[in-house]
Write a structure and sequence with these properties.
single chain; mainly alpha; Helix Hairpins; 61% helix
């Protein structure tokens, strides 16, 4: 199942009229995803396991674009309109599954993100982690 969330602005017809990240709330997108799925009677297929499988599958499709590519090649992808759109489509698919999982199981993504970043700030203090890619258990 492929869903191109980035095309919402062309297809929402009364469900929010998304324009840009700065103008769209997480709740707007969750509401759109909910309506999109309910209109298609897909709730029956969206258990946490199935949504997590979809999320990881789509994330691997993002990775597929970069596998075995040099740094120069990867950066060039974002300058090529077709390749950039292909990557954006896969990123949007990842967001679709994440938003759907959050919407169906009442996860406040902003709060979860804020809580997780507070943990990251504790685990990765600037004075110990700046310029390092080591895991917090190694610093």
């Amino acid at each position: 199942m492929l869903l191109i969330v980035k095309n919402l602005k062309r297809s929402v017809s009364g469900v929010g009229g998304f324009k840009m990240d700065k103008d769209t709330s997480i709740q707007d997108v969750k509401n759109y995803v909910k309506k999109f799925c309910e209109d298609r009677d897909w709730n029956q297929f969206h258990s946490p396991k199935e949504l997590a499988i979809g999320l990881i599958t789509e994330a691997s499709e993002v990775l597929e674009h970069f596998r075995f590519k040099s740094e120069k090649e990867m950066k060039a992808f974002f300058k090529d309109p077709k390749k950039r759109e292909d990557i954006e489509d896969e990123m949007a698919d990842v967001l679709y599954f994440l938003f759907r999982l959050a919407q169906m199981y009442d996860v406040d993504l902003s709060e979860a993100f804020k809580r997780k970043m507070a943990k990251n700030e504790k685990n990765y203090p600037i004075e110990k982690s700046k310029g390092s890619n080591k895991k917090y258990t190694e610093i």
